[in-house]
Design goal:
The protein has 122 residues and is mainly alpha-helical. It contains five helices and three strands. Strands 1-2-3 form a three-stranded parallel β-sheet, with no helix packed on it. α2 links the parallel β1 and β2. α1 crosses α2.
């Protein structure tokens, strides 16, 4: 499929990239297997299109804290993406949130401080 798509669109203007698997939904597949799928798809695309970037991100759901060395590809034309829906109150446009501003880490990243501010929760 990726060979066919790359061959079809390789000469089109305004193709920004091939997003291999949008927000991989698996919560049980090991990162190395998801990354292997990306690597094989990129290799297939490169047989037809050597220039257009490929877009990949970690499973599940492009969570930033799941982005690790497994996902680093040898291909230099890879765009790494992730979702970052924190702080939730700001993203959901709740009252009393603004940007830029200063917030306590525990308030902004409730439940995630061990990832984002393990040494200083203030």
């Amino acid at each position: 499929m990726w060979k066919w798509l790359a061959d079809r669109y390789k000469d089109w203007d305004w193709i920004a990239g091939y997003e291999i698997m949008s927000e991989p939904r698996t919560k049980i597949t090991p990162d190395w297997q998801v990354a292997q799928f990306f690597s094989e798809a990129i290799a297939a695309i490169r047989t037809k299109d050597k220039e257009t970037p490929c877009v990949i991100g970690p499973a599940p759901y492009y969570k930033i804290w799941k982005l690790n060395k497994n996902y680093l590809m040898k291909d230099p034309k890879v765009i790494y993406t992730f979702d970052f829906f924190l702080p939730n109150d700001y993203v959901m446009n709740k009252e009393n949130t603004s940007y830029p501003a200063k917030y306590a880490c525990d308030d902004i990243f409730a439940g995630w401080t061990s990832y984002f501010c393990p040494n200083n929760k203030n």
